[in-house]
Amino acid sequence: MAKLIDGKRIATEIRAELKQKVIEWVKEGHRAPHLTAILVGDDQASQTYVRNKMLAAKDVGISSQTLNLPSSITEEELLDKINELNESPLVDGILVQLPLPSHINERRICNSVSCEKDVDGFNEKNVGRLCLDMNTLIPCTPLGVQELIKRENIETFGKNVVVVGRSKNVGMPIAMLMHADGRNDTSAMDATVTICHRFTPREQLAVFCRLADIVITATGVPGLIKADMIKPGACVIDVGITRITDEETGKTKLVGDVDFDEVRKVAGHITPVPGGVGPMTVAMLMKNTYIAAKNLAGHHGRPESPVSNNSSNASV
């Protein structure tokens, strides 16, 4: 049976490390880092996600605020709100919870968040810096995947990695972090990467996955990855999360992209859903907020040591 990669435990460790960092930061005379979340509309899943993020912020000593805005808000009104936060010297991190109502252009909104406060890493300039291996705020889920692999001491140098998923916020940045040069700012993983997605024919997907030392899947297609696709001993990271109804109980439950019960009999390491990548995403949001606060403090006349997302030493 595969060794379970306990994302919840690792995220708890990271949050404890961050809490100590924040305590030391405040002792040095700085205010606590501040995170503002923008929640548009009344989507229950989004409300739950934001609530969990704010609880995590409180846990590590980051002050936070949630702006609850009506779904009827116009794009221009939302842009004005974001601009106010961009200009506020009391705000270090801004996140806009996605998805947004259909009448609002998500790309325009993400690009409107100041690069220095873009703790989700979705501004196209931050995405570009990531693609160029430059120091930047990295999207939280990909950063969480990278941290899981590093803290579990999974070897990546020269290994074959298959990323199943091509979204610009998850699949693409995961692929970048897996294949890029580990000597540069993003402390990438030096792997050989193949990118597949939900429309890759199953037979071809199986061929690619069977060659992989690490399979990272992020499609939102339940049960996409089967045991016969996995090389014995491979590491399987399941980023997918979908709520389905259990046919036997009639109750809803969260599942990933991986046929967990069968794949764990073949793999060497595997993440569960829930309790795998999800908690890491929240922990990395806290890390990005702390980094943003330090960077902004330096910009405002209080020089700090250069801060990067280098986590190769498994510390925050």
For the sheet with most strands, the description reads:
6 strands, parallel
Order of helices and strands: EHEHEHEHHHEHEHEEEEHEH
Structural class label: alpha/beta
Which residues form runs of ≥5 with pLDDT under 50? 300-316
**Total of helices:** 10
Give the distance, in angstroms, between the N- and C-terminal Cα atoms: 31 Å
The helix content is 25-40%
Rounded to the nearest angstrom, the radius of gyration is 19 Å
Strand order, main sheet: write it out. 1-11-8-7-5-6
Mean pLDDT: 93
Instruction: Tell me the strand percentage band.
Output: 15-25%
Tally the beta strands. Answer: 11
Shape label: globular
How does this structure look, described?
The chain is of the alpha/beta class and 316 residues long. It starts with a strand and ends in a 17-residue tail after the last helix. The protein contains ten helices and eleven strands. A six-stranded parallel beta sheet has the order 1-11-8-7-5-6, with helices on both faces. It has a three-stranded parallel beta sheet with strand order 3-2-4, with helices on both faces. The C terminus is likely disordered.
